Amino acid sequence: MSVTIAGVTFRNPVMTASGTFGSGMEYAEFIDLSQLGAVVTKGVSNIPWPGNPTPRVAEVTAGMLNAIGLQNPGIDVFIERDLAFLKEIDTKVIVNVCGKSVEDYLEVVRRLQEEPVDMLEINVSCPNVKEGAIAFGQNPDALYDITEKIKRVAAQPVIMKLTPNVTDITQMARAAEDAGADAISLINTITGAKIDIEKRQFVLANRTGGMSGPAIKPVAVRMVWQAAQAVSIPVIGMGGIATAEDAIEFMMAGASAVAVGAMNFHNPYATVEIARGMEDWCARHGVERVADLTGIVAG
Amino acid sequence: MKKKTTMTVADSRRIAQEIWSLELAYAPGEAPDQVRPGQFAGIYPAAADLLLMRPISICRWDPARSVLRFVYRAAGRGTTTLTGLKAGDRVDMLGILGNGYDLDALAGRRVLLLGGGIGIPPMLELAASLSACKNENKNTQVTAILGYRDGDLFLKEEMEAFADVLVATEDGSAGTKGNVLDVVREKGIEADVICACGPLPMLRAVRRYAAENGIRAFLSLEERMACGVGVCLGCVTGTTKVDEHSRVHNARVCVEGPVFDAEDVAL
Questions:
Q1: Candidates A126, A129, A169, A231; catalytic one
Q2: How far is CA B36 from CA B31, B118, B155, B235, in A?
Q3: Binning pLDDT at 50, 70 and 90, where does residue A36 land?
Q4: How do residues A61-108 score in pLDDT, each as one tens digit?
Q5: Closest C-alpha among B162, B199, B227, B243 to residue B73
Q6: Do A125 and A133 touch, CB atoms closer than 8 A?
Q7: Is pLDDT of A60 > 70?
Q8: Would you list the domain boundaries of chain A?
Q9: Residues 252 to 291 of A: which have CB under 8 A from any B CB?
C-alpha cells in the first residue's frame, strides 16, 4: 500500500487534509495515527493568527462552508508543542505553511529546516484571509515567484497546495512545476456563501467561506485529472473524499496520494477506515501496488 | 474517552412548542465512566446529506440505565430530522464533549442557576448534581430561575425536585414579566455563585450583573461547530486572557468550554 512522493515513502496513500485534523492530538483519542500515510498539519504562520469572527462554519447540502481564517499559534508554539507530539508518532509529517507576505512564508520555512518534518505543503489557496494565501495561488507569476523563493530555502520537499478558484488549473500546476515544486496538492475549498433568508443576512460572519465535503468531489476529480495531465510531478488529490471508493477514484484520475478533510468531522475514524478500505479494494481487484492505479484513466 | 457510537432511542416526545425530549441509551459496555453537568454530545441528523453532528447539551444522565436525556429546540433541518425518531431507532452520537461544570467550585455555596429558553436543559442536570452534593455539604443551596417566551413552560416540574424554582416570561403569562435578571432584582435574590445558560444577550447581562455585584459566574456558551473535538477552530469565543491552544484570544467552546468563568470570556 506504500507510495513514494519526491523520495518520501508513505505507509499508505491516505493523508489528512490541512485544517481538518489539527496536528493530530485531538484525533489520537479516536484513531492510531501510525496507520495514516501522513499527518498534514493545520496551516502555521510566523506569528499567532487570531482568525475570523464567528460564525465561522455553516452546513450546506452534502458539505460545509468554513471561514476560520487560519487561526493558529504561530511557529514557536507549533515547534515546541505540535512537532514535539508528532515526533513521537510513527507516521510522516507534512507541515502546512501559510503567510501574508512572501517573507512570512520564508520565515516559517527557515524555522522548519532543522525540524523533524518530512515535507512542506505551502498554502497558497486559503480563500478566507484578506492578505496572502490565495492571492499567491490565483496568479501564475506570483505562484512561480513564491514557489521559487521557498524552494531556495526549504530543507524538505515542497508541495504547493492549489486553489480551485481559478479559470485554468493547468496554468497554476505548470507554474508550480516550472518553479521547482516537488509536488502539488489540490483542491483547497471552493469559495461559496450561504444566506439565512429569515434573518436576511449571510450565515458566516466573513460572508463567504470555503466549501468542502462530498458535494465538491466531482469538481476535485476533474481538476486533479487536468492537473495531473499537465505536469510530471506527483499530485496529491483531495476534495470531498468520504469512502475508499472515492479515494480510488482520485488515484485513477492521477493522484499519487489522497487526503481526507471534512469527512473527519462526520466520522473521526474516516481516515483509517478509508486506508483499510483501499487495501481491501486492491486485494479484491488483484491490484498489487496501489501506486499502479495512479492516472490509469488518463489515457 | 470520546468516541462516535451508535445509540438506541429510549424515548422521544414533544414537551412544548418546538421543544423535544430525546432519551438515548448506550449499548452494553459503551457508557462513559463519568458525565459532568454542562457537557454535551453531538447527535448526527438522520439525513444522508447532513454531515455534521448537532451539539446538544446533556439534560439528564442516568448511569443506572446508561441513558442520556437531551432536550432541544427543533430549529433547523438537522434538529427537525431528530423529531422523527421513535423508540428503538438507532442514532449516531459523538460524545461526551466539553468541560462541564466544576462541582467543587459550587458545593457548599448558594448557587443561582439561570436558564433562558433552550439554555434551561443543562441546568437540570446541574441542579440534580448539586442536589446530590447537599448530602455531603448541607450548606449547598440551589435556586433556579427559568426564563421562557410565554406560558408554554418545560422542565419546570422536573427542576422543582432539585431546586427552588422561579419563572420569568417575556409576555408575563407566567411568573415575573421580563427576563431572569428581572426576577433576581424583583425578589432580591442573593447568591454566592451564578451558573447561566441562554441566549447571548442574556449571558452578557448576567456577566455584567455578576461583575457589578462581585459574584462569581460561570456561563455555558453556544457556538456553531463542525468537529466538536477542538480541531476545526470553528466554535471559538473571545477571551480576556491568551488562550491555551492558539495563544491568541479565542478559546474553543467545544473543548475549553462550553462552560467558562464569566471573567475569562469577552462576549
A1: A126
A2: 13, 19, 19, 20
A3: very high
A4: 999 999 999 999 999 999 999 999 999 999 999 999 999 999 999 999
A5: B199
A6: yes
A7: yes
A8: 3-293
A9: 262-269
- Spell out the domains of chain B, with CATH numbers in brackets: 3-97 (2.40.30.10), 103-220 (3.40.50.80), 221-267 (2.10.240.10)
Whether B51 and A268 lie within 8 Å, measured CB to CB: no
Average pLDDT over residues A50-57: 97
Determine the pLDDT at residue B188. 95
C-alpha atoms less than 13 angstroms from C-alpha of A148 in its C-beta half-sphere = 10
The DSSP string of chain A is: --EEETTEEESSSEEEPTTSSTTSTTGGGTS-GGGSSEEEPPPB-SS-B--PPSP-EEEETTEEEE-----B--HHHIIIIIIHHHHTSSSEEEEEE--SSHHHHHHHHHHTTTSS-SEEEEE---TT-SSSTHHHHSSHHHHHHHHHHHHHH-SS-EEEEPPS-SS-HHHHHHHHHHTT-SEEEE--PEEEE-EETTTTEESSTTSEEEEESGGGHHHHHHHHHHHHHH-SS-EEEESS--SHHHHHHHHHHT-SEEEE-THHHH-TTHHHHHHHHHHHHHHHTT-S-GGGGTTTTT-
What is the C-alpha end-to-end distance of chain B, expressed in Å? 30
Mean pLDDT, consecutive 10-residue stretches, chain B (267 aa), reads 96 97 97 97 95 98 98 95 97 97 94 98 97 83 97 98 97 97 96 97 97 97 96 96 94 97 95
Query: Which chain A residue has the Cα nearest residue B223?
Result: A55
Q: Which residues of B touch A213 (CB under 8 A)?
A: 51
What pLDDT score was predicted for residue A299? Answer: 56
Give B44's contacts in chain A (Cβ within 8 Å): 266
B2–A30 C-beta distance less than 8 A: yes
User: How far is the C-alpha of A237 from the C-alpha of A186, rounded, in Å?
Assistant: 5
ipTM for the complex shown: 0.95
Distance CA A88, CA A34 (A): 10
**In chain B, what residues touch A56 (CB-CB under 8 Å)?**
224, 233-236
Instruction: State pTM to two decimals.
Output: 0.96
Q: Does domain A3-293 have CATH number 3.20.20.70?
A: yes
A98 tagged catalytic: no
